[in-house]
Write a structure and sequence with these properties.
Helix content of chain B: over 70%
Oligomer: heterodimer
Order of helices and strands of chain A: HHHHHHHHHHHHHHHH
Strand order of the largest sheet of chain B: 1-2
Number of strands of chain A: 0
CATH topology of chain A: MetI-like fold
Helix content of chain A: over 70%
Number of domains of chain A: 1
Number of domains of chain B: 1
Strand content of chain A: under 5%
Structural class of chain A: mainly alpha
CATH superfamily of chain B: MetI-like
CATH superfamily of chain A: MetI-like
Order of helices and strands of chain B: HEEHHHHHHHHHHHH
Number of helices of chain A: 16
CATH architecture of chain B: Orthogonal Bundle
Number of strands of chain B: 2
CATH architecture of chain A: Orthogonal Bundle
Radius of gyration of chain B: 24 Å
CATH class of chain B: Mainly Alpha
Radius of gyration of chain A: 24 Å
Shape of chain A: globular
Distance between the termini of chain A: 36 Å
CATH topology of chain B: MetI-like fold
Largest interface: A-B, 97 and 94 residues
Largest sheet of chain A: none
Structural class of chain B: mainly alpha
Distance between the termini of chain B: 19 Å
Shape of chain B: globular
Chain lengths: ~280, ~290
């Protein structure tokens, strides 16, 4: 009896939680399928309307921005490149650095450890103007390299991989050495396959991090070809508010929904690995 | 550290090189630049650079609006952490308990984690707009809510926008933490203690301390840095600058005034704040944690 009550209570709380998470986005979605007159006179809509294809087609294919050079499709591609670039690079170089710090005995290990870890104190937002200056001095503004590299410079992933490697039993290296594996072989043949879930978790983490960037692309990209979908959120329909009599609310909602889809898909589809990876780091 | 390790003259540096090079160029160089900016002033034409001592810091700290931003940042971080941590924990505990539909709940609660803060902000803007806003209309009918005029209402607006997706992030980590607790511990506690609420506070919660501690830090850095996108798409500091965080203010000041000295000083103050948080993390909280 008591057990059934606690189960019902749990379902009740979880349903409330799900509603809290789903309702805002549901409303954004349903509103994205209505015409602007309805939206402006009646407010946000609870049920889907007739303009799904029209609104989404318009957002995906119509050129926006100040010089009318970019479509939401282009911005989605840019965001994808940015997220993918940051995630891939960060996972690879962080694994290598953590490997070196855990599996090699050398005198500079401790100073280098601190040199890397102190960077946790200075996220990009804190050093934003000097970073911008350096990136523009090198000539990387308005480029994918400029969007990606400065965000790869941080220690979070090194930290996670280091924790993970430390939990790997010593016997693994001992037996690998008996088999005659050198440091490269051990890394590629033993450690990388062993870190699969951890790699997946870090990759999702970093992809979402890269895709979500707002301030850096805002500062970095003056050329609209490099606009990302998150930074363009506020900019893409700006000029239309002045020129056209009706604000394009339906299209804005469609834009919001489109920008949410890629990272949400990745997290939902890969959630098993994501949670597994997190459990591994806990140890 | 490992008992068995490799020894080599240079291989370890090859593995470290990419990280070290990128960090040096894109992190240490800007930091050095920040310090140089903070302790110097440039004349209006950009010809000369003079040592300024602590002048830039005095200038920043004597600005009343800086103290307003400092206060707001702390309130904001605190409230977001409390709301999203407690709701995330509540949901994770229930999701861990439930027998049917576990994975469906998990999926439905996890996905908002992936939404960018700026996107949350733009969406929230519609819920709180005078013309469309469902929440604006609701709160307005309850107590005359108007975030453009009332500081408290602007706070509420930002608390909701700031905590929403973070609940989901906390949920994920708490759930992962709960799954690491061994079944035998839970079974033993079932015999010893019949009240499930007491069982939670005396057994489960202490075992979750490492996760909680990690999440507090995650939430603090989120509130400190990632909320930029939310503020820039919602209140933009409204009613009149009371809802700017330190990061937002540093950016706006740097951009508008192009006073690099003041921007540099603000950056260094922020680094110090993060440093203090990190030290508290290591010295104070970690001592009280039970690791399994």
């Amino acid at each position: 009896m008591i057990n059934r009550l606690t189960q019902m209570f749990a379902h009740f709380i979880l349903l409330l939680g799900v509603l809290l998470m789903v309702i805002p986005i549901w409303l954004a979605f349903t509103s994205s399928t209505h015409d602007n007159v309805t939206l402006i006179t009646e407010g946000m809509q609870w049920y889907p309307g007739p303009l799904f294809i029209e609104n989404y087609d318009e957002v995906l294919n119509e050129k926006g921005g100040f010089s009318e050079e970019i479509t939401a499709t282009g911005m989605l591609i840019n965001s994808f490149i940015m997220g993918l670039g940051i995630a891939t690079l960060k996972v690879i170089i962080s694994m290598m650095a953590a490997y070196s710090l855990v599996y090699f005995r050398f005198r500079l290990a401790t100073p280098i450890f601190w040199f890397i870890f102190i960077t946790l104190l200075v996220p990009l937002e804190v050093r934003i103007f000097p970073s911008y200056k350096i990136v523009s001095d090198i000539g990387l503004t308005n480029s994918y390299t400029g969007l990606v590299l400065p965000l790869v410079a941080s220690a979070t992933a090194v930290f996670f991989f280091r924790q993970f490697y430390k939990s790997v039993p010593d016997e693994l290296l001992e037996s690998a050495k008996l088999d005659g594996a050198n440091s490269w072989r051990f890394f590629i043949d033993f450690l990388v396959p062993l870190s699969k879930t951890m790699i997946a978790a870090m990759f999702i983490f970093m992809f979402v991090f890269g895709y979500s960037q707002y301030l850096w692309p805002l500062l970095m990209t003056t050329d609209e070809k490099y606009w990302t979908v998150v930074m363009g959120m506020k900019l893409i329909y700006v000029e239309l508010y002045e020129g056209v009599s009706l604000p394009r609310v339906g299209q804005r909602f469609a834009y919001i929904i489109l920008s949410i889809i890629p990272p949400v898909l990745i997290v939902v589809l890969l959630q098993r690995w994501f949670i597994k990876g997190l459990i591994q780091t806990e140890k | 550290m490992k008992k068995v390790q490799f020894k080599s003259k240079y291989t370890q540096y090859i593995f470290l090189a990419p990280t070290l090079i990128i960090i040096s160029i894109f992190l240490y160089l800007p930091i050095v630049q920040t310090f140089r900016d903070a302790f110097t002033t440039q004349d209006a034409f950009g010809f000369g650079r003079f040592f300024a001592g602590w002048d830039n810091f005095k200038f920043v700290l004597s600005d009343p609006s800086y103290l307003v931003a400092l206060k707001f940042t702390f309130i904001y971080i605190f409230v977001i952490t409390v709301i999203s941590c407690s709701l995330g924990l509540l949901l994770a505990v229930q999701a861990n308990k439930v027998i049917h539909g576990k994975s469906a709940y998990k999926t439905l609660l996890i996905w908002p984690y992936a939404i960018a803060p700026a996107v949350v902000g733009v969406t929230a803007q519609y819920f709180f707009s005078e013309r469309f806003g469902i929440l604006y209309a609701l709160f307005n009918s309850l107590w005359g809510f108007d975030w453009t005029a009332n500081i408290f209402d602007a706070y509420i607006y930002l608390f909701i926008a700031g905590s929403w997706k973070q609940i989901s992030a906390n949920f994920i980590f708490f759930l992962a933490g709960l799954q690491t607790i061994q079944k035998s511990v839970i079974e033993a506690s079932l015999i010893d203690c019949r009240s499930s609420l007491r069982r939670f506070w005396t057994i489960t919660f202490p075992l979750l301390m490492p996760t909680t501690f990690f999440l507090v830090i995650i939430n603090i850095t989120y509130g400190f840095f990632d909320t930029f996108g939310i503020i820039d798409t919602t209140t933009i500091g409204a009613p009149s600058g009371e809802t700017k965080t330190l990061v937002y203010k540093a950016y706006i000041d740097g951009f508008r005034g192009l006073d690099l000295g003041a921007a540099g000083a603000q950056s260094i103050i922020m680094m110090l704040l993060v440093l203090i948080i990190t030290i508290i993390q290591f010295r104070y909280i970690e001592r009280r944690i039970h690791y399994n």
